[in-house]
Amino acid sequence: MSDIGPHLSYLTDQVISTGANKVIELGTRRGGSTGALLLGVAETSGHLWSVDIDSICGNQVIEFYGEMAKRYWTFVHGNSQDGPVIELLSVQMPVDLIFIDSSHVAEQTTQELEIYNHLVGPKGKMIFHDTDTRNDYWWVGVRQPIYNFLSHHREWRIERDVPFSEGLTTLVKT
Ligand SMILES: C[S@@+](CC[C@H](N)C(=O)[O-])C[C@H]1O[C@@H](n2cnc3c(N)ncnc32)[C@H](O)[C@@H]1O
Fold first, then answer.
1. For residue 27, how far is its CA from the centre of ligand 1 (angstroms)?
2. 101 in contact with ligand 1, CB cutoff 6 A
3. Atom 16 of ligand 1 has which residue's CA nearest to it?
4. Alpha helices in 18-82 (DSSP H)
5. Which of 44, 85, 125, 144 falls 20 to 30 Å from 112 in CA-CA distance?
6. What DSSP designation does 19 have?
């Protein structure tokens, strides 16, 4: 289990407890967070779109999660900042929840925040992994961009912020 492990039940619970129908994930890798979000959308009869620049993630998740993935999941192969990916996901507006766990490079995090916050409907959420303030790399690449974003997007606020397992931060749109 990767460092996301202790956050997985929270991710599932967030989908179910908010009744989220449309969920987007940026950064799939071998599908750790994907599985947690999938369990949630299977319960709400919603759908999960997972983006990754690495094409292999699509087959891996289908192999691992089988029927549940075939029914409730779409893999979007591409760069989260590229036009075709954004266009495909924009069709789903308004989205209820976006989970962001991609490159952790400041410029990309900033772009993802600016692009994807517009897709989220009222009371929707964005959740970020790797936000632990004690880690310089996450500070520069993830937390600082979140703070910059919040300073000029007053409609968003931090709802939950925990430091364990590299940190997980939930923003809610008011
Ligand atoms: C930290 S891993 C994701 C881990 C996953 N959420 C989990 O729970 O196991 C980051 C992933 O983001 C992907 N990624 C990095 N930059 C990306 C980009 N610009 N667009 C889409 N995916 C990207 C990488 O290929 C990698 O699979």
1. 3
2. yes
3. 103
4. 32-44, 56-72
5. 44
6. T
Rg (CA), the chain: 15
54 lines ligand 1 (CB under 6 A): yes
- pLDDT of amino acid 2: 73
pLDDT digits (tens, 9 = 90+) for 52-104: 999 999 999 999 999 999 999 999 999 999 999 999 999 999 999 999 999 99
Q: What is the pTM of this model?
A: 0.98
Looking at the structure of the chain, the number of domains it has is 1
Q: Specify the 3-state DSSP secondary structure of 133.
A: coil
How do residues 129-172 score in pLDDT, each as one tens digit?
999 999 899 999 999 999 999 999 999 999 999 999 999 999 99
- 166 DSSP 8-state letter: T
Q: Are 110 and 100 in contact (CB under 8 A)?
A: no
Distance 28 CA to ligand 1 centre (A): 5
Give the domain range for residue 105.
5-173
Determine whether the shortest distance from the Cβ of 130 to ligand 1 is under 6 A. Answer: no
